[in-house]
Write a structure and sequence with these properties.
Blueprint (H helix, E strand, L loop, with lengths): L1 E3 L7 H5 L8 H15 L10 E7 L6 E7 L2 E3 L4 E5 L7 H8 L4 E4 L2 E3 L1 E5 L2 H14 L1 H10 L8 H10 L2 E6 L9 H11 L14 H9 L1
Antiparallel strand pairs: 1-3, 2-3, 2-6, 4-5, 5-9, 6-7, 8-9
Protein name: Deazaflavin-dependent oxidoreductase (Nitroreductase family)
InterPro entries: F420H2_quin_Rdtase, Split_barrel_FMN-bd
GO molecular function, one term: oxidoreductase activity
């Protein structure tokens, strides 16, 4: 789930996913596409399905980019949770343990993140909710990445025990957005057409006289 900015090498696909072993072609393709989208300023098209982040090599001190699927997004705080799909040996996870990520791109937003590592219980709750909300996506990723059958709670809990979960949130939470209905009401009120307390919305006196004379 990480890709270096250096030139392509025989082990390029391995480094793309932060692995010490060669991943399957399908796994490489799935995670390469969203990273390319972010690099070509097409992040908004991904919504909140994938995020990209920049981490620093613990030995080289060079910046690397990685991409991961978002397993939970908290609207109020803007926190996004991801998982180190190949366990604690995932290269980007080891780098994050040494030094926090320097930048996160999520959809059309780029921010400097606060970073935390989830407890096992927190991670299990995230995985349970993701499985319930996105069963097909869960099956696809489990098959592609070789996670096995995670439909039962036992295997899912074992997976969580051996795969770290990381959360990123912006230092400043995103600005709240008004619900569509409320936003429309505010727009109507601003036009002075529906608020009885607004003098501008009342009929003119001459019009009132005409109405009463009818």
């Amino acid at each position: 789930m990480s890709e270096s900015r250096t030139s392509r090498s025989p082990g390029h696909d391995r480094h793309l996913l932060g692995l010490r072993r060669q991943p399957g072609r399908l796994a490489v393709a799935i995670f390469r596409l969203p990273l390319k989208a972010y690099r070509h300023n097409a992040g908004p098209a991904l919504g909140r399905t994938f995020l990209a982040f920049t981490h620093v090599g613990r030995r080289t001190r060079l910046p690397h980019q990685a991409v991961a699927m978002v397993l939970r997004y908290v609207e109020a705080s803007g926190e996004a949770v991801i998982c180190a799909g190949w366990g604690p040996q995932t290269e980007w996870y080891r780098n994050l343990r040494a030094e926090p990520a320097t930048q996160v791109q999520l959809g059309g937003r780029t921010f400097t993140p606060q970073q935390r590592f989830l407890t096992e219980e927190e991670a299990f709750d995230v995985a349970m909710q993701f499985r319930r909300a996105h069963p097909r996506r869960m099956r696809l990723i489990s098959t592609v990445l070789g996670w096995g059958n995670l439909r039962d709670d036992g295997p899912l809990r074992e997976f969580v025990r051996t795969h770290p979960f990381v959360a990123f949130r912006p230092t400043e939470p995103p600005a709240p957005q008004a619900p569509p209905g409320r936003e429309r009401s505010a727009h109507v009120l601003s036009a002075g057409s529906s608020d009885p307390a607004d003098p501008r919305s009342r009929p003119a006196p001459s019009r009132l006289r005409r109405l009463r004379s009818r």
